[in-house]
Design goal:
Mean pLDDT: 88
CATH architecture: Sandwich
Number of strands: 5
CATH class: Mainly Beta
Order of helices and strands: HEEEEE
Helix content: under 10%
Strand content: over 45%
Distance between the termini: 42 Å
Low-confidence stretches: 1-10
Radius of gyration: 14 Å
CATH superfamily: Macroglobulin (MG2) domain
Number of helices: 1
Length: about 100
């Protein structure tokens, strides 16, 4: 049905998303550049889709850098999802060593 494609405009609201260092061992930086202000959440999921870390950033606008501790994550591959109130707006693969 047509209303399944309701987040297309949200994908245009993120100008840039960079995750570094990658691979990471302790600290991970997430650099965001958003075209408009919005409430943003960072979600880290393992390859089975289980959310292993969740960080609510609150209102984000423009270029910002956030960091979180990855030393409590097991070595492996994760998906880092950036979401607003309407759903996902970007994602990156994160490798933890």
């Amino acid at each position: 049905s047509p209303d399944q494609i309701n987040n297309v405009t949200d994908l245009q609201s993120i100008n840039n998303l960079n995750v570094y260092p990658n691979p990471a061992s302790s600290q991970v930086n997430v650099a965001l550049d958003l075209a408009e202000g919005m409430d943003v959440t960072i979600e880290v999921a393992d390859m089975q889709g289980r959310v292993v870390k969740l960080k609510n950033l609150g209102e984000v606008n423009g270029k910002q850098v956030y960091n979180f501790n990855a030393s409590d994550l097991s070595s492996g591959v994760y998906i880092l999802n950036i979401q607003n109130q309407n759903g996902p707006i970007g994602h990156r693969t994160l490798i933890v060593e």
